[in-house]
From TrEMBL:
<dbReference type="InterPro" id="IPR011335">
    <property type="entry name" value="Restrct_endonuc-II-like"/>
</dbReference>
<protein>
    <recommendedName>
        <fullName>Putative restriction endonuclease domain-containing protein</fullName>
    </recommendedName>
</protein>
<dbReference type="InterPro" id="IPR008538">
    <property type="entry name" value="Uma2"/>
</dbReference>
<feature type="domain" description="Putative restriction endonuclease">
    <location>
        <begin position="22"/>
        <end position="181"/>
    </location>
</feature>
<dbReference type="Pfam" id="PF05685">
    <property type="entry name" value="Uma2"/>
</dbReference>
<dbReference type="InterPro" id="IPR012296">
    <property type="entry name" value="Nuclease_put_TT1808"/>
</dbReference>
Length: 197
């Protein structure tokens, strides 16, 4: 019991520390299960994938937001997805943290340093937050992994449905009522392949 209370205090302390922390320019900091994780600025391939995805979102139906901190209920996590997609009708008027229950989809673009976080850690965090769709865009393996049907809680949370779509094929984003054209998505050269998902 004492250890749990101590952990809760420590995790709240980390969230408060993150609120006041200013990472160096070009560095992204996020809280993942009580651990502050910092990442270097993204590759051009990454930024172009995010841009091509944003441009396919009809703004009258969906707001694709970058650099938006997300509050995951019941989690000591404040991830910053590469893209958060939600309906403009549920958008709050202000606030640094966007509650996960308002979000329809999150997108992460894999880098050579974020493979494990994107495929494992964030998969369970976003599922725990009951975010209906999590799209992993992987320019290392030239495919997308669409995860839907979140279930469970905490580190045991997961998505029941997983679909792998290679670059060039459309991704059926049923949660958004559209197909994502991936034909413009670039790949990262000279990065060793991995074994995820």
């Amino acid at each position: 019991m004492e250890a749990t209370e101590m952990t809760a205090v420590d995790e709240r302390g980390m969230a408060k520390y993150l609120d006041e922390f200013e990472p160096p320019e070009g560095v992204k900091a996020e809280l993942l299960r009580g651990v502050i994780v910092m990442m270097a600025g993204p590759d051009l391939v990454h930024n172009l994938i995010v841009l091509h995805t944003q441009r396919q979102m009809p703004l009258e139906r969906w707001y694709p937001l970058q650099t938006q901190d997300v509050d995951i209920a019941g989690e000591s996590s404040e991830p910053v997805p590469d893209l958060v997609v939600l309906s403009p009708e549920v958008l709050p008027s202000s606030g640094r943290l966007l509650p996960s229950q308002l979000i329809t989809m999150v997108l992460e673009v894999v880098s050579k340093y974020s493979v494990h976080q994107d495929y494992v850690v964030k998969r369970s965090i976003y599922a725990a937050g009951k975010i209906p769709a999590y799209l992993i865009v992987d320019p290392i393996m030239a495919h997308c992994v669409l995860l839907t049907k979140p279930t469970g809680q905490g580190e045991d949370a997961d998505y029941l449905s997983q679909e792998i779509i290679k670059f060039g094929d459309p991704v059926p984003l049923d949660a958004l009522g559209l197909e994502l054209d991936t034909s413009e998505f670039g790949t990262l050269p000279d990065v060793r392949p991995h074994r995820y998902p």
